[in-house]
Specification:
mainly alpha; Growth Hormone, Chain: A
């Protein structure tokens, strides 16, 4: 949860800090590219080695790397320092993310997993919203350059608090499933939609704070408010998802929500006012992401315990590799070609990704399995 507060601060503050230092979206895209190259190169090895090294130790090392990244950003204005920070942040993320997801999945039985994943996502979103809210306050009271430097110091401190409270998780006592579900071929249907989704997301999502700034000259404090309110409603949506999945099935729930999110995404560049754009941004973010814990739970249920951390790492690597390419492309297009074009390309990628997910899993929904 403390790491999520720091993540909210980073998501809000980094691109705006670079913007205040007069680095345009092209440079911002290159910075994100460096971070994501690091993640893409390391997340699978870390995911595979986590069960052998120890999940708690892996997460501790990752939190230490992340704190160092935030401190590096806070004390410099030089590009090469930011590149070093992005490499550190990427290493930390590669150590933490697959390990944490697998630890959560291991701690409960199949029937309860979707509830745990959504509860965890709820508190993560609340923590992230807290990070956005803190960001707006600090920047408002301390100024737009010094305030951002203080933000990243606060982020480093919250990560160290997370490391202090980190405890070993208890494995599930339900016993192994009757069917032994192993093999890389089981992972491939999850990976392919993520490849397309990651490319589309990189074109737009990291640049939303700057998009509001460039298109509407929105004050930083108002951007912070929009992001905070969105995160709160996003968190609330997580609590409803398990019940929606119980009625409709996890796969159908994901497909319905992502289809609605794509419609909102296409509408964003065509709206004339700041207010309607902000509402569509919030709707898109909530709908697109509300079903992610269901998707994670569904994947964990289909895979054996010994494959989970590897599957999470492979899934995230599949998302990250195209994302690290498209984030540089998106930054270039926004600064040199058009603010709106990346939204339409992103929307097409999301349609393809959703279609792939439907193709692979529509006939294997967990609601259907429960009725068999």
């Amino acid at each position: 949860m403390f790491n999520a507060i720091a993540g909210g601060i980073f998501s809000f503050g980094f691109v705006l800090f670079l913007f205040r230092l007069h680095y345009d979206t092209t440079i911002q895209g290159y910075m994100m590219f460096m971070m994501e190259v690091t993640i893409a190169l390391t997340i699978l090895p870390f995911g595979i080695s986590a069960p052998k090294v120890g999940k708690r130790l892996m997460m501790m090392l990752g939190l230490g790397m992340t704190a160092m990244a935030y401190l590096t950003i806070s004390f410099s204005s030089e590009i090469w320092h930011f590149i070093m920070a992005m490499v550190l942040w990427g290493l930390g993320s590669s150590m933490i993310s697959p390990t944490l997801s697998a630890s959560l999945a291991d701690s409960v039985c199949d029937r309860d997993r979707k509830y745990l994943m959504n509860i965890n996502a709820f508190f993560t979103m609340i923590a992230s919203a807290t990070g956005f809210f803190i960001s707006g306050l600090i920047v408002h009271f301390m100024g737009e350059v010094d305030g951002y430097r203080q933000l990243f110091r606060v982020a480093a401190a919250t990560v160290l608090v997370a490391a202090f409270f980190l405890t070993r998780r208890i494995d599930c006592t339900c016993g192994p499933p009757a069917e032994i579900r192993k093999g890389a071929r089981k992972i491939l249907p999850f990976v392919l939609p993520q490849l397309v989704l990651g490319f589309g997301a990189g074109l737009v999502i990291p640049f939303f704070p700057v998009y509001f700034k460039l298109r509407f000259s929105t004050p930083d404090t108002l951007i912070s408010t929009i992001f905070t309110v969105t995160q709160v409603f996003w968190a609330v949506s997580y609590m409803a998802m398990p019940f929606f999945a119980e009625k409709a099935g996890s796969v159908k729930a994901l497909l319905v929500l992502q289809t609605m999110a794509v419609v909102a995404l296409f509408a964003i560049p065509m709206t004339p006012s700041f207010e309607s754009t902000a509402v569509l941004y919030a709707v898109r973010m909530i709908l697109m992401n509300a079903s992610r814990p269901l998707a994670d739970s569904y994947m964990m249920t289909l895979l054996g315990k010994d494959l989970r951390s590897t599957a999470v790492a492979a899934n995230q690597m599949a998302w990250m590799i195209p994302h690290m390419i498209s984030v540089a492309i998106g930054g270039f297009i926004m600064s040199r070609v058009s603010l709106e074009l990346p939204f339409f390309i992103c929307g097409v990628m999301y349609v393809i990704s959703t279609s792939l997910y439907a193709y692979f899993f529509m006939g294997r929904d967990d609601l259907q399995k429960a009725h068999e």
